[in-house]
């Protein structure tokens, strides 16, 4: 009898069925995926150069232009999560020695600065305490002092729950010869943003928050000014995968015949297309209003329970993700574990500078409902009764 050459047996765990419980995802993302978007992602695969897939990509591009409020030609979805879009923006905009000013008031500025340093850029940081936002005066001082080519700022700071006002920043940057790069991963569709009117040069987001699609594709767009900077590069971007020249061609943004660049995550694109379609059907204004109203209701309920919101100024609160201080006498991990175990519900602890200090509650896209506000408030009331350190 022939003896097997295999020394590693088929893993037992793979011989059992896939286990995926039902869960209400009210953390800072991902948010739940509605059936329609799940069904789109489960459709039969097509080839990545088939005309029907290229057509879906064109539809995604139009959906992103609507969601971003832009007519930029160079608009597409990166094959990767929000971090991948952040890298695509920085890898393509910056060359070694370029000065970039990074507005840091939470983890996303810290990460952008880290990525830019890896590129050999000259990274200057503009600092604000977590929970605060930057004023145009703060920004102007930084632009005058550091003379950057690019300013990075986060619209929806999901680690702190801050919504950064963007009015006037684009114009300010342009007056100082600088491009404006904005991270809207956590805010797109949940808070107003107008890429063209606000003169934003590069804007990116993610699929798994308000758009309610699975993670893995990330909308991004470059203004004409930003495109010109790409064309003036002396060196190629350090990543082939994220080279906007190649991606522009694959996405049909350069008027040339489309060439194979990489095998796109086609089923993720089907899901993203449906997420964008649902946003288009609802309408941006209705979506912004829905997020605002449910966030207000949540904040009211939290303060009625005696909890303290982390972001003091109401207008600076991100409508998609609310941060609330961990109350005295509690450990955040007990509360999040209690909600998961007893209510099948995810909320999150802090991230980066807010670790141990806050709980983060996300109400994004189809998860932003008054029913979910009531559910999370009820579950938290229950947790506060059961999780006090003196009871454990
Ligand atoms: N920026 C912000 C503001 C985010 O909230 C996130 C995700 N939490 C990211 C970037 C990174 O996105 P991803 O986890 O999809 O890579």
Automatic annotation (TrEMBL):
Gene3D superfamilies assigned: Aspartate Aminotransferase, domain 1, Type I PLP-dependent aspartate aminotransferase-like (Major domain)
- Alphabetized Pfam families for the sequence: Aminotran_5
Which InterPro entries is this protein grouped with? Answer: Aminotrans_V_dom, Aminotrans_V_PyrdxlP_BS, PyrdxlP-dep_Trfase, PyrdxlP-dep_Trfase_major, PyrdxlP-dep_Trfase_small, SP_NH2Trfase/AEP_transaminase
Q: Could you tell me the EC number(s) of this protein?
A: 2.6.1.44, 2.6.1.51
- GO MF annotations for this entry? alanine-glyoxylate transaminase activity; L-serine-pyruvate transaminase activity
Q: Which reaction does it catalyse?
A: L-serine + pyruvate = 3-hydroxypyruvate + L-alanine; glyoxylate + L-alanine = glycine + pyruvate
Q: Which cofactor does it need?
A: pyridoxal 5'-phosphate
Q: What range(s) does the Aminotransferase class V domain occupy? A: 45-374
Q: Which GO terms describe its biological process?
A: glycine biosynthetic process, by transamination of glyoxylate
State whether keyword Transferase applies: yes
Give the main EC class: transferase
Q: A Gene Ontology CC term for this entry?
A: peroxisome
The UniProt keyword set, sorted, is:
Aminotransferase, Pyridoxal phosphate, Transferase
Positions that bind substrate? 360
Entry-annotated residues carrying N6-(pyridoxal phosphate)lysine: 209
Q: Which family does it belong to?
A: Belongs to the class-V pyridoxal-phosphate-dependent aminotransferase family.
Q: What is this protein called?
A: Alanine--glyoxylate aminotransferase
Species of provenance: Regulus satrapa
């Amino acid at each position: 009898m022939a003896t097997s050459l295999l020394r590693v047996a088929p893993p037992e765990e793979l011989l059992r069925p896939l286990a995926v419980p039902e869960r209400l995802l009210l953390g800072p993302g991902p948010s739940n995926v509605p059936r329609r978007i799940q069904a789109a992602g489960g459709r039969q695969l097509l080839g990545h150069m088939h005309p029907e897939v290229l057509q879906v990509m064109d539809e995604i591009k139009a959906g992103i232009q609507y969601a971003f409020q832009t007519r930029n030609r160079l608009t597409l979805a990166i094959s990767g999560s929000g971090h991948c879009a952040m890298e695509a923006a920085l890898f393509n905009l910056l060359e070694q020695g370029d000065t970039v000013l990074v507005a840091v008031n939470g983890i996303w500025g810290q990460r952008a600065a880290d990525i830019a340093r890896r590129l050999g850029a000259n990274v200057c940081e503009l600092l604000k305490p977590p929970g605060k936002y930057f004023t145009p005066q703060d920004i102007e001082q930084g632009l005058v002092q550091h003379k950057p080519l690019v300013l990075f700022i986060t619209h929806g700071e999901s680690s702190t729950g801050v919504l950064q006002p963007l009015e006037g920043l684009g114009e300010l940057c342009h007056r100082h010869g600088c491009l404006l790069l904005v991270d809207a991963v956590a805010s797109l569709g949940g808070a107003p943003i107008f890429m063209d009117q606000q003169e934003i040069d590069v804007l990116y987001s993610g699929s798994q928050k308000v758009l309610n699609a699975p993670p893995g594709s990330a909308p991004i767009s470059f203004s004409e000014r930003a495109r010109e900077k790409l064309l003036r590069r002396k060196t190629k971007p350090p990543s082939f995968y994220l080279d906007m020249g190649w991606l522009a061609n694959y996405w049909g943004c350069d008027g040339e015949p489309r060439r194979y660049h990489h095998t796109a995550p086609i089923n993720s694109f089907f899901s993203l297309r449906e997420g964008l379609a649902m946003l288009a059907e609802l309408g941006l204004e209705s979506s912004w209003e829905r997020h605002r109203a449910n966030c207000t209701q949540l904040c009211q309920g939290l303060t009625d329970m005696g909890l303290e919101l982390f972001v003091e100024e109401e207008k600076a609160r991100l409508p998609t993700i609310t941060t609330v201080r961990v109350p005295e006498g509690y450990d955040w991990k007990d509360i999040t574990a209690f909600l998961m175990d007893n209510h099948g519900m995810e909320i999150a602890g802090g991230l980066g500078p807010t670790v141990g200090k806050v709980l983060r509650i996300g109400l994004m896209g189809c998860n932003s409902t008054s029913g979910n506000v009531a559910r999370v408030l009820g579950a938290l009331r229950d947790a506060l009764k059961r999780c006090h350190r003196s009871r454990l």
